[in-house]
Design brief:
With 216 residues, the chain is α/β, with parallel strands linked by helices. It is 44% helix and 13% strand. The strands form two sheets. A five-stranded parallel sheet has the order 5-4-1-6-7. A two-stranded antiparallel sheet has the order 2-3. α3 (44-50) packs antiparallel against α4.
Length: 216
């Protein structure tokens, strides 16, 4: 029986409308958007910020060596614009609230210390029973350790938890620990998949004979 539902943050509960921002900054420094993405999110500094070894502010300061033409002020403007592009996904948030009526619901995200004030700013903390951020746990998805830490803290077995994420490697890692998983590919598919976890909203009379509402 499911007792805990874990939602990813970036790309699921929150989404960033930032393509135009990335394109503008990439063009400014003579980069492609893919090159900019790799510099920003695949650097050692990013990894360190996501496991809590350095702050998000310090990480962005460290990027000066990657952007020799940029001033420190420009890098902080880029940082503010990219984080500011995040907004709550209302359809997913509605599912957070619906699931919370039946289960304990938490957030599990790879992020630096910037995420806590961002969640508060968007009013998300009030919708969640717990928030687990990689910078506080010292480990990131898809490492098995992050799932084991959360399960241990919550006092639930792996088969009692459902994990929802938009990254294939993260859902595969959760599944390897024995957790129920949903690979988030869009709101319509999420609507279909999560219905089976709300048995009280699916009367037995509405099902075909021999059909069972089993988790996907």
């Amino acid at each position: 029986m499911i007792k805990l539902v874990l939602f990813d943050c970036g790309g699921v509960v929150m989404k960033a409308d930032d393509a135009h921002i990335k394109a503008r900054w990439a063009a400014k420094y003579g980069l492609t958007t893919e090159e900019l993405r790799r510099i920003l999110w695949e650097s050692e500094g990013c990894r360190l910020s996501e496991i809590g070894e350095i702050s998000d502010h310090a990480y962005w300061e460290s990027l000066a060596s990657q952007f020799p033409l940029a001033t420190p002020q420009e890098l902080q403007v880029m940082r503010a614009e990219l984080w500011g592009a995040f907004a709550v996904n209302p359809r997913v948030l509605a599912w957070v609230d619906r699931m919370r009526a039946h289960y304990r619901v938490a957030l599990l995200s790879n992020a630096s210390d910037v995420i806590a004030p961002l969640l508060e700013q968007h009013g998300l903390t009030a919708h969640l029973d717990a928030i687990y951020i990689s910078c506080d746990l010292g480990v990131t998805k898809p490492d098995a350790g992050i799932f084991l830490k959360v399960l241990r803290t919550e006092g639930v077995a792996a088969h009692e938890a459902l994990f929802i994420d938009d990254r294939a490697e993260s859902v595969a890692a959760a599944a390897a620990q024995g957790m129920h998983i949903l690979w988030y590919v869009g709101e319509d598919e999420l609507d279909r998949q999560l219905q089976v976890y709300l048995p009280t909203e699916q009367p037995a009379s509405s099902m075909q004979e021999g059909e069972h509402a089993a988790p996907v």
